[in-house]
Amino acid sequence: MDRTSRALAVVACAAVLATSARAAAAPDDLERARLLDQQGVRAYKEERYNDAIRFFDEAFRIGGPPSELWNIAKCHLRLDDPEDASKEIEKYLAQSGLSADDRAEATQQLHEVQHRHSTVTVASSPSGATVYLDGRRSGPAGVTPATLDVPPGSHTVTVEHPGYEPYEKSVEAKFGRAVLVDAQLARGSGSSGAVVVAQPPPEPAAPEGPTRPHRLVIDGQLGFGAPEHGSIGGPLSVVGFLGVSYVALDAHRSVVTVGVRAMITGDSWSNNVGAPDDPANCGAPIPADEAATAFSAFLTGGAAWRASPRWRLGGDLGVGIATYSASEVGGDLFTPTCRPSIAPVPAVYLAGTASYSFSHELRLLLSPVILQAQPAFDGARNAPKDASGLWIRYAFAAGLAFDVF
Q1: Please, what sign has the CA dihedral across residues 273, 278, 282, 284?
Q2: Which element (helix H / strand E) includes 142?
Q3: Rounded CA gap, 83 and 354, in Å?
Q4: Which terminal Cβ of the chain has fewer Cβ within 10 Å, N or C?
Q5: Are 324 and 344 in contact (CB under 8 A)?
Q6: What is the pTM of this model?
Q7: Phi first, then psi: what are they for 101, rounded to 5°?
Q8: Stretch 13-17: mean pLDDT
């Protein structure tokens, strides 16, 4: 059962127990409203959203609680109908008696629905024309055929091609809906082929503000990494990453985050230097092939740039600690001991990232370049091989990121 289905189940119980201003309805109506609510929840779980809307609407009409309006809004969102979802949420917020948490959740959902970016597709005949958005002459938005990512509101699309009259059209971006501009360019009247603009361009638009900040993003990735222990290299091993970040800024083209990230992997090494395998504190010889679990945790800051409506490019930088877990150490990396006391050391983290949005909530996350650097752990040997220098781990990974609203 997903989060929304669980929420609807809770609402179904609340519809039975809650007492509100609408409870003045006749007992028969309240009992019928309760049954209609249950049928609506069942239809929602079965993805029959139009049926669920009818059940919830009738339940509210005959005396059901305001939560029926919230249920209707969720159904419209599932049907990709943000306009009607917005109207139902506004009706829900107009009801009295809502708890602070319910009102805050609905307000956040309404903000998300009303501030979705739209995709404006611009085509022209002939193609290869220059596209300007909102009169910004400092740089073109693209060349036809072009796809533009725009925030909600009114926008002006200008299309220019040498030898043709400029084309201008006002469009309205709402609720993330796609907008199509088809510019049929007319040839200019002058013999020089220069484009004459009849009026000066409008003043540049004010910078766009943040769109959907103040949310959490949870991501998980798996990949492969290889360490460098001073001058000693190690084999490739599986690396896992888990991160939680807070979106502090989400503007038209840029995203800024702060968060925490954990990294875990396994290291292995051999005894090629002929180190003793039976130190005094060992009850049994140290294996020639050894292994340890490496764990790191970081406080991170990230920045990304939207290269297109779905692709985002960026990077993360973090500082934290690294530690090792092993029952015995020796061989090429450590002075032999069966009672290692490996204290955490400071570490830094750097990653280049790219992500592809499947939806507003789900993204494919790629990290083609990951670097962790730290000083050597206590007990690292410096002869005959030197493992006491900087320890560096190189990795790459892929996974998924979920936006939690």
Answers
A1: positive
A2: strand 142-143
A3: 31
A4: N
A5: no
A6: 0.50
A7: -65, -45
A8: 43
Q: What percent of the chain clears pLDDT 70, i.e. is strictly above it?
A: 86
Q: How far apart, in whole angstroms, are the C-alpha atoms of residue 205 and residue 111? A: 22
From CA 168, how far away is CA 181, in angstroms rounded? Answer: 10
Residue 2, pLDDT score: 52
Alpha-carbon gap, residue 65 to 394, rounded angstroms: 56
Contacts of 53 (CB under 8 A, 6+ apart): 40, 72, 75, 76
Residue 260, classified by CB atoms within 10 Å of its CB into exposed (0-12), middle (13-18) or buried (19+), is middle
Q: Check if the beta carbon of residue 32 is closer than 8 Å to that of residue 62.
A: yes
Residues 359 and 366: their CA atoms lie apart, in Å, by 16
Only one residue has tokens 């419209």, namely 76
Average pLDDT over residues 253-281: 87
Of 169, 98, 178, 75, the residue nearest 129 (C-alpha): 169
Residues 6+ apart with CB under 8 A from 141: 131, 132, 133, 148
CA nearest to 176, candidates 364, 404, 357 = 357
Q: Does residue 160 contact residue 188 with C-beta atoms inside 8 Å?
A: no
CB 62 within 8 A of CB 43: no
DSSP state for residue 21 in the 8-state scheme: G
